[in-house]
Amino acid sequence: RKKTNINKSLNDDIKYYINNSYLWNKTENNSRNFLKLDLEIVFFSLMKNWEFSLIGNDILNFNQTQVIDNSLQDNYLRERITNRLSGFAGVGIKYKVL
Predict the structure, then answer these.
(1) How far apart, in whole angstroms, are the C-alpha atoms of residue 92 and residue 94?
(2) Is the overall model pTM greater than 0.85, yes or no?
(3) Long-range contacts of the stretch 23-27 (C-beta < 8 A, 24+)
């Protein structure tokens, strides 16, 4: 597993966070690599008490949630299924109480 995280701000009103990790799943017959990309863009309002955000978690893997490994040994077939959580996108609203 390898990770890269980037936290930057464009100005005082907009910040963004990018979390990037490279995962691999290796079984007897297969290997599968996943690039996991998480993204968050945060907008601050003029009054600085409100915060709005766009959030994406594992946005490249919405539909690739299973790794299936089949192996044929002598007279039987073995199948192993590994499930992952799927990615999602969302919107966030936060109010800061002083």
Answers:
(1) 7
(2) no
(3) 25/67, 25/82, 27/67, 27/69, 27/80, 27/82
DSSP structural state of residue 10:
S
What residues have CB less than 8 Å from 61, skipping those under 6 apart? 34, 36, 84, 86, 87
Q: Looking at the chain, how many residues does it have?
A: 98
Give whole-number Cα distances, 66 to 10, 50, 63, 70, 96, in Å.
37, 39, 9, 13, 40
Segment 19-61, tens digit of pLDDT: 888 877 676 666 767 788 899 999 887 677 888 999 998 888 7
- Three-state secondary structure call for residue 57: strand
